[in-house]
């Protein structure tokens, strides 16, 4: 982030690094490299899930991948997106103006993002409970009186078993719908973040900043892709939807870079323009709020406290819980480490 008061040496260094032609060549290279690494990251868990599908370890493998993904998403929101949003709105070109100097807008918009994600969650859950689930209220198990049973107790047991099977199928469908919703809302939050990354790089004219960012963002997209791909793999989408969601993730950052280049050519705004910083700060805060909610509520809490494979008693469940926790820590640590470079 630029300083409002710069020394002569710093100003000379900045001037030496500011090269529009060299920056443009680096950004075109970044478009292709980041697209390829995004494809690699997001398709990895999906292909692994297809490989394990139908095998004894399938459910456990998907759960471990999803816990790794949760760590990546949590780290992305708290270590990458939120600090960058605060930094953008705290820049002296922004914080010296009214109303940005009077109120912590980054925190407010982050809270709005989290509450918005909660609202989407509640609305979708209510819809599934009333219209999409079919397993609540009057659609539950029916007990037949003894006197009305046509075939004695065998008939009642048959009715009871059929109702049980219907209820289990209904609950499985609700869980699948919930997982699909989580994947879709998660992708929205990640797309906000990816657009910000791309536009910021596209508007920059500093070749010294862009060069190391290409390598750092490539790894960043691999890990973020692993996070999203793990959730897509578990949601059980149709093949066309999987391809669409993976493609959307892969192209968002490259398209953001192109958009940033177009914005600079039309307006002359670079990544240090006050209006660009405000946009980066607000979008980053909103994205961070969505991702924090999704990581903690819909990924970590849902699996560790409500997944039958982790909550059922037994040595096997205990071992799997430890493995999932290790995967969560590895995911968050891997993404946090990247904050040293991007």
Quick overview:
This protein has 342 residues and is an all-alpha fold. Helix content is 81%, strand content 0%. Belongs to the ZIP transporter (TC 2.A.5) family.
* Total number of strands: 0
Structural class: mainly alpha
Low-confidence stretches: 131-157
Distance N terminus to C terminus? Answer: 13 Å
- Average per-residue pLDDT, rounded, comes to 78
* Helix content range: over 70%
Q: What is the makeup of the main sheet? A: none
Name the helix and strand elements from N-terminus to C-terminus, one letter apiece: HHHHHHHHHHH
What fraction of residues sit in β-strands?
under 5%
- What value does the Rg take, in angstroms? 24 Å
User: Helix segment count?
Assistant: 11
What is the approximate shape? Answer: globular
